[in-house]
Amino acid sequence: MKQVSITHSRKVELLEKPEPEIQAPDDVKIKVSYAGVCFDDLPFFERSDEMLAWGPILYPTGHEMSGTVVECGTEAKALGFSEGDRVSGYAWQPCGHCFYCLSGKEAHCLNLRMTEGAMSEYIVWKARQLIHLPKSVPMKAGCLTDPIGYALHGMDRASIKMGDKAMVIGATVPGLLILQLVKMQGATCITVIDSTEANRDLARRFGAEYIIDPSKQNIAAEANGITNYLGYDVIFETSGNIKMLRLSSKLLAREGTIAFSSVYGLNTDIPITTSELYLKEATLKPFYMAPYMLPRIREIMPRLDLEPIISKIFSLNDAQEAFEATETGFYPKVLIEFAGE
User: Fold this and answer.
1) 113 with 166, same domain?
2) What gap in Å lies between CA 238 and CA 11, rounded to an integer?
3) 130 with 30, same domain?
4) What is the CATH number of the domain that holds 195?
5) Is this structure's pTM higher than 0.85?
6) Are residues 155 and 113 in the same domain?
7) Fewest beta carbons within 10 Å, which of 11, 20, 167, 252?
8) CB contact set of 181 (below 8 Å; sequence gap of 6+)
9) 218 CB contacts (<8 Å, ≥6 apart)?
10) 179 with 210, same domain?
11) Which contiguous run of DSSP H or E holds residue 276?
12) Is residue 185 part of a domain?
């Protein structure tokens, strides 16, 4: 089988590998239809110093996929999986028995590991890592399982309430999903900041009431006008731009919450003073990885407008171009097609 692998800095190759086989009763073998290129894959693609600081290179790579079950173990069958099922899931496998797993915080598992990377023609994952895709969700959109869980976790962390004024900085995949979720939650003054016209158009489609182009508009002036100088109750910073995190504290309402979802550099200090948080009694909440989210993802998927987020699809032979396209930042979600629908 063919497997997409990062072999050198900014170099992706197709390697021939033996097909993986089921080894345990809860294993599920999947023929991958599509795999997503995540912005989190780029540090590994670019061989950045920060990637090296995280630890081993992801090899093979990829953690977003959709596909069809071709074989499953007896335990997986007992859990409802069978040949021909359309599935998606999480590449991350918590141990299930450490302190954090037993405390319901599996995202912080002390033994968390990535199972077989998603960018292979065939993969074997555990049944507990998978969900059945709803009938109304096409295979392409099924690749968004991981970012949907991420967005749901961000919503939980922010504790947004009906009537809260909400801002999303960065029409990234998590940003566009959070935009749809805050609208469902009854947020008001929903504002999106993004410098790319195509991303702003998507934000309008998904229900943003106000759009700010930071290259042409004064963000603070626009935000003050929208909120009548009161600021936003919840600001989601999903752009990964440290300057926008700094700006967030200026746009925040009293007792507001900033939820952010980027490392911004392993040695980067948060550019928000304690006095800013103190005087506003504000809350700063990172959101990292979604715990126990798969059932909720499956339920919310049909209610989200997912297909427009898929902005570019490359063939398996063009995997290098898929990574390069993601690197430009112009496309919210790039997919690599393995077997299609």
Assistant:
1) no
2) 27
3) yes
4) 3.40.50.720
5) yes
6) no
7) 11
8) 151, 152, 155, 300
9) none
10) yes
11) helix 274-280
12) yes
Distance CA 309, CA 296 (A): 20
Start-to-end CA distance of the chain, whole Å, equals 19
For residues 120 and 193, state if they share a domain: no
In a domain, 301, yes or no: no
192-to-137, 184, 214, 330 alpha-carbon distances in Å:
26, 16, 10, 16
Q: What is the DSSP string of 10-23?
A: TEEEEEE-PPP---
Joined together, the tokens standing for residue 228 give 């009548």
**Token code pair at residue 38:** 């995540």
- Cα separation of 99 and 286, whole Å? 21
Query: What sign has the CA pseudo-torsion 300, 303, 307, 308?
Result: negative
Same domain for 132 and 247, yes or no, is: no
- 153 in the same domain as 282: yes
DSSP letter string, 182-215: HHHTT-EEEEEE-S-HHHHHHHHHTT-SEEE-TT
Q: Give the number of domains in the chain.
A: 2
**227 and 316: one domain?**
no
CB 266 within 8 A of CB 53: yes
Using H for helix, E for strand and C for coil, what is the string for 212-262? ECCCCCCHHHHHHHHHCCCCEEEEEECCCCHHHHHHHHHHEEEEEEEEECC
How does pLDDT run across 116-146, given as a tens digit for each residue?
789 999 999 999 999 999 999 999 999 999 9
Residues recorded for the chain? 341
Query: Whose CA is closest to 232, among 200, 206, 259?
Result: 259
Q: Is residue 295 part of a domain?
A: no
Print the domain residue range for 118: 2-138+306-337
